[in-house]
Amino acid sequence: MRHFEFHKSHRIGWLRAAVLGANDGIVSTASLIIGVAAAQASHASILLTGLAGLVAGAMSMAAGEYVSVSSQADTEAADLAKEKAELAHEPESELKELTGIYMARGLHADLALQVASALTAHDALGAHARDELGISEIVSAKPLLAAFASAGTFAIGAALPLLAAVLSPQPFVVTVVAVLSLLFLALLGGLAAKAGGASLIKGAIRVAFWGALAMLITALVGKLFGVAVA
Questions:
Q1: What contacts 180, CB < 8 A, 6 or more positions away?
Q2: CA distance 134 to 125
Q3: Distance from C-alpha of 27 to C-alpha of 212, rounded to nearest angstrom
Q4: Which of 13, 107, 121, 210 has the fewest CB atoms within 10 Å distance of its CB?
Q5: Is the confidence at residue 92, as pLDDT, over 90?
Q6: pLDDT of residue 82
Q7: Three-class SS of residue 196?
Q8: What would the mean pLDDT of 108-130 be, rounded to a whole number?
Q9: Predicted confidence (pLDDT) at residue 179 exceeds the cutoff of 90
Q10: What is the structure's pLDDT at 14?
């Protein structure tokens, strides 16, 4: 009977970008709406601000993630090219290096050499990428995936407080958006923690706390400048 194991580390790439995008979408858009509403802006101005924040934020997240992850991908590609050249010109030194890595992990010299030799014969570059450079298929950089995940989840996250603002009478916009956004953030934090195998409650509290802090500060700023303008 075959034994199957299911691990969560394969989710690292898309989960990080997705959680970051959704969290930023909720927090930034809710904060914008609350700040403008606290400054006594009209309902139309509040909704326009929220919509502009959604569009601008999604594009910013996509561009930022793409540039950031592309830089990581470029570094990985350069390291792999360097490693490939070293394997071609100094195969014995590279074999000793790989053997040393396995010895440092607890294998005795003879077994470490056997493992290094077998892996080198099978896929030398793959062995060095994984065990020397720490590059694997699970964690390797994927710029387009990160960009689309961040932009899409930002837009979804931003749409939640924006929808709350659309459905709220102007006098209650701040309260409704703040309460619902905190609930959305807690749910997001809990689900993300569960997907990553962490504590659901800790994840919910952590995300909701920073969201509440951001909304409180922008509400105070909006109130201050709203009073000053009036």
A1: 160, 161, 164
A2: 12
A3: 8
A4: 121
A5: no
A6: 86
A7: coil
A8: 84
A9: yes
A10: 55
Contact yes or no for 34/223 (Cβ under 8 A) = no
108 pLDDT higher than 80: yes
CA distance 35 to 221: 7
Q: Any residues with CB less than 8 A from the CB of 155 and at least 6 apart, and which? A: 25, 54, 58
The residues near 28 (Cβ < 8 Å, ≥ 6 apart) are 53, 57, 158, 214
Tokens found for residue 77: 């590609």
The alpha carbon of residue 155 and the mean position of all alpha carbons in its chain are separated, in whole angstroms, by 15
Query: For residue 155, what pLDDT is reported?
Result: 94
What's the chain's Rg over C-alpha atoms? 25
Give the SS3 label for residue 169: coil
Distances (CA, A) of 111 to 93, 101, 182: 18, 12, 55
Predicted confidence band at 164 (pLDDT cuts at 50, 70, 90)?
A: very high
CA dist., res. 87 & res. 73, Å (int): 21
Q: Which of 88, 108, 90 is nearest to 99 (CA)?
A: 108
Cα–Cα dist 21/5, whole Å = 29
DSSP conformational letter for 140: S
User: Which of the 8 DSSP states describes residue 119?
Assistant: H
Alpha-carbon distance of 8 to 173, in angstroms, equals 39
Phi, psi of 142 (to 5 degrees): -130, 90
> Average pLDDT for residues 33-52, to the nearest whole number?
90
First to last CA, the chain: 75
Q: Is the pLDDT of residue 75 over 80?
A: yes
- Quickly state the pLDDT bin for 16 (edges 50, 70, 90): low
